[in-house]
Amino acid sequence: MNSRDSSPVRGAKKNTASNVIIFIICVLIAFSLWVYVMLTESPDNEQIFHHLQVELTNTDVLAKNGLSIYGGYGNLIDVTLAGSRSVLSKLTNQDIIVTADTSNCTDSGRFDCVIKVDVPPGCKLVGKSQETVNVYVDDLLTKNVALTEQRENTNLPEGCSTGTIVFPVDHIQVEGPRATVSRIEKAKVVVDLANVTKTTEFLDVPIIFVDANDTKVESTYLEYTTKTVSFTVPVVKKVTVPLNVVFQQDYLSLDTCAVTLTPAEVTVTGEPDVIDRGSLIENIYIDEMTAFDKDKATKYGELSFTKDVTVGHVAGVTVSPAQVNLSAVANSRFKVRVINIPSTNVEGSGGTVNYEWVNVNNQWDNGSSVEIVLIGPVNVLRQIDVADVTLRYDMSPFSETSAGSTVSANAWVEIEPPFKDQVLALGSYTVSVKIADD
């Protein structure tokens, strides 16, 4: 009896336990769904987006007014957005547009421009790290300034100096805000010569700008194309070199001819190693056969000449002055009156008619001798006698039509051996010959 009564009770207890378990499971599922919804789909989730760049807008309006923005670019801010987790998790910085309107910048100066954030769909703006950006506005000024140099720490060997530096450009064009560019007086290259002892090449030396007080002018807003230059610093050495005269034909020498050079020395400039090798200037060579003014030498007996000569030099150097004045007076001169005056070519022709001279009577209009001038070594001149000198004249140009007239015949000096190659006769000669009728 008791056994049958207890079975329903045990069944009821089992049902109650099962219901409790089911209830707990449902609660857990519901809680999980609630947590999921709250975490992913709740519009109140917030996320901070860092380092968003602020883009300046309406800058074209400033350009129309001759203004440019020189400060305000590159500002970064942080933005906080609210929205569902599923939406926020898909956003990147590129999806959020941050701008600042510059249309209120109507003059030169600094302005605070309000930052605006364009929020993507499904989000709202909670906050941003700053409300405005500071913008610097000024007139655009372009200026051309001279490129100059400043040499420092010169430490050259004795007698050396630096020459002229030739830059690839002589002016630099710079543009930027008027307040900055208007202060620039010139562009400058600083040339450090501390280790320069010979001609040296400098590469990519920076250009700087300075004001009237030589104070450096710097600004990130300056724009200029040529920022560096390459150039060569020439190093030269100057020496004074005396000039030397050499007579080519040995008719004269510095012992027998007084030579004056004006100036007597020249300045030679070149690379130090070239200068130090020496032998910089070539001799000045004088050809006695062509140097003297023959007409003056004959007429006045003056054995002298004056002329400009070019100073020869070795390659790689320059000479100053390049020309000097040379004057010379021959001390070893010798005048002789020549009595031996024979004619030559006595058989001549006149046109197409052959004519043989018969009983030609040569009569000197100015006497029976001619004075000539010889130059050469003194010891040779002292040995020459009038018998060693002949003045020969040429009658070949004349014909029978010249009979009864006085003609002028060209003449030349002949020196007998052994003196022929040791002395030089100066002057050009003519003789007057009276041709008698037969």
Summarize the structure in words.
The protein has 4 domains: 86 residues, RNA Polymerase Alpha Subunit, Chain A, domain 2, CATH 2.170.120.30; 94 residues, RNA Polymerase Alpha Subunit, Chain A, domain 2; 94 residues, YbbR-like domain (RNA Polymerase Alpha Subunit, Chain A, domain 2, Beta Complex); 101 residues, RNA Polymerase Alpha Subunit, Chain A, domain 2, CATH 2.170.120. Strands 2, 3, 5, 6, 8, 10, 11, 13 and 14 form a 9-stranded mixed beta sheet that branches. Strands 25-30-31-33-28 form a 5-stranded mixed beta sheet, with no helix packed on it. It has 9 helices and 33 strands. The termini are far apart.
User: What do the pLDDT scores average to?
Assistant: 81
**Low-confidence blocks of residues:** 346-367
User: Count the strands?
Assistant: 33
Cα-atom Rg, whole angstroms? Answer: 55 Å
* Helix content bin: 10-25%
Assigned CATH class of the largest domain = Mainly Beta
Give the number of domains: 4
Distance between the termini: 209 Å
Helix-strand makeup class: alpha+beta
The shape is rod-shaped
CATH topology of the largest domain: RNA Polymerase Alpha Subunit, Chain A, domain 2
Number of helices: 9
Largest sheet: 9 strands, mixed
Q: Which band does the percent of strand residues land in?
A: over 45%
- Name the CATH architecture of the largest domain: Beta Complex
